[in-house]
Amino acid sequence: MKAVEVQNLSFSYRNGRVLHGVSFTVEAGEILGVIGPNSAGKTTLLRLLSRVLAPEAGTILLFDRDLTVMTKREVARHVAVVPQEFQVAFPFTVEQVVAMGRYPYARGIGLESVEDCQAAQHALHETGTAHLARKYLDQLSGGEKQRVVIARALAQEPRLLLLDEPMAHLDLNHQLEILRLLKRFKEERGITIILVSHDLNAAAECSDRLLLLKSGEILTTGRPKEVMRPEILEKAYDCPIWTGTDPETGSIRILPRL
Amino acid sequence: MTLVRLLTVVGTLAAGLLAAILIALSVGTVRVGWTETAAILFGKILPIPVSWTETQESIIVGLRLPRTLLAGIVGSALALAGAGFQAISRNPLADPYVLGVSSGAAFGVVSGVVTGLATGSAFLLLPLFGFGGALVAAVAVYAIASIEGRLPIQTLLLAGVVVSLFFASAIMMASSLIQAEELQGVVFYLMGHLRVVSYPTIAAVVGCLVAGTALIYSQVLPLNLLSAGEEAASQLGVEPERVKRIIFLGCCLVTGAAVSASGSIAFVGLMVPHAVRLCLGPDNRLVIPASLLGGAIFLILADTVARTVAAPVEIPVGAITAFLGAPFFAYLLRSRYRSIYP
């Protein structure tokens, strides 16, 4: 089954075109890494997939249903987003922030149901943030905060999880923590994941397939080994790049050359 | 949040409101005892044997009760509007007075009187004129203050000052150019006075308050989500523009109604939601109903102070709230907003 099927997708902001004629599919249960230089259209692609923006042309099928005929709430029951930046204007606790992920299921005056509480608790435990439940978001470290934002997305019980640079601003240890979480979501919950990242090593490490965007078009797509090749990456990033394999694990390593 | 917590908070505050009403009714130049006050009040609905004098009854029912009710309604309306404006602007310093919405409403009321459209028997239309003025002012403030869809605190406060001054001077011009006795009276009370008003006036204001409350309360949960920004809320299924529009209308409706009855009373809308948030946290499912009740309690008590502290001289209640509010505002601006609101 296909989780996402994008056909001929185009979108432009007022100041210019961002995506043109993008087509790709994501199989259910796979991790797709979206990479590419700045202003390639990666974040815009996520916004289109989460229905924050409406496509200018082309179609998006989400689990075989046309995204444009679904209501926002319906979409939010299938798709959760971990945005690049997350801030709340008032002092909500971690617990409250995670419970907000249940909004797509809310009824009546919006008191949480038993299922809502269970889903939120489960999300807190699964991301290792249960001990932070009563803290405020601005009391957390970068790594803790990112896991809380992921817990909020998880509380939505999504079938598709979109992450925009989830490892930016994090140190190595916390980057790994996030990658391990994503792998676990895929294996244990069968969640389909689309991961936008500037970290090519991380993207190559945890993605089943990669999508390389440049200037709003797909440069290439395929398994990490097929995409992470110097001649392809150099074309995308306009700089000399070395790739190799880790002798112990066999994973791909990518380094820019000065 | 659980239903038990909601009911506990609402129940406690409702009891507090009843106590505040009894205090306000009992205290004054003519002191009426607690038991008599309560008996007179509940004697209207329950069969209680008469144990009070006719003078006491006419003081309580004819004078103090309508004024106390008005204070409660106006306090509710302003606190509710403050909570609503703070939530959609994601800014703890917003309130109808600071944003100039109260001034706009006052101008709406004045224009209703000047044009003769809301004079005489049409006085029940005044809340709607207030609503119109509030709406114009609120739209103006947002148009001036928004930069690329965001409402930075600096531009928001400045825009509020600008709009507020503009409407205040428009009212001053109207009152000095047009020599109508009715207008002078209106301009006087628009500076923030609670008075004894007729029961139909109270009913008209209550109508607007109920409608506005329903609009605002219908959006409590989306309001929580909006505090994480419009895009994040949108990804969870909220339609930010729709929510903002509904809250906007609701806030202008209650502000317009409150101002048409009592003028611009400062800082209630700022302080009450703030105090509520400090005590109960920022969840709007609690903040909205608690502000509604807390605003009523606060203004009823402030008005009781205003009419008794220097009796027989009466201090305008707006002076009391501003006297308390200005230092509170300064304190918020200096300290709280950095530590609690990053």
Continuous helix count of chain B: 14
- Could you tell me the mean pLDDT of chain A? 91
Roughly how many Å is the radius of gyration of chain B? 20 Å
N-to-C terminal Cα separation of chain B, in Å? Answer: 24 Å
Largest sheet of chain B: none
Q: Tell me which oligomeric state these chains represent.
A: heterodimer
Q: In one word, what is the shape of chain B?
A: globular
- Helix/strand-derived category of chain A reads alpha/beta
Indicate the mean pLDDT of chain B: 85
Proportion of helical residues of chain B: over 70%
Largest interface: A-B, 35 and 32 residues
Strand order of the largest sheet of chain A: 6-7-8-3-9-10
Approximate helicity band of chain A: 25-40%
What best-fitting shape of chain A do the alpha-carbon axes yield? globular
Structural class of chain B: mainly alpha
Quick take:
The complex is a heterodimer of chains A (258) and B (342). Chain A has helices at 42-49, 72-78, 94-99, 114-126, 142-155, 172-189, 200-206, 224-227, 230-237; strands spanning 2-13, 16-27, 31-35, 57-62, 65-66, 79-82, 160-164, 192-196, 209-214, 217-222, 241-245, 252-256.
Give the topology, please:
The complex is a heterodimer of chains A (258) and B (342).
Chain A: E1 2-13, E2 16-27, E3 31-35, H1 42-49, E4 57-62, E5 65-66, H2 72-78, E6 79-82, H3 94-99, H4 114-126, H5 142-155, E7 160-164, H6 172-189, E8 192-196, H7 200-206, E9 209-214, E10 217-222, H8 224-227, H9 230-237, E11 241-245, E12 252-256
Parallel strand pairs in A: 3-8, 3-9, 6-7, 7-8
Antiparallel strand pairs in A: 1-2, 1-4, 4-5, 9-10, 11-12
Helix pairs in contact in A: 4-5
Chain B: H1 3-26, H2 34-43, H3 54-89, H4 101-114, H5 126-145, H6 153-177, H7 181-189, H8 199-217, H9 220-226, H10 230-235, H11 240-262, H12 268-280, H13 284-308, H14 317-339
List keywords for this structure.
heterodimer, A: alpha/beta, four-stranded antiparallel β-sheet, 9 helices, globular, B: 342 residues, mainly alpha, disordered C terminus
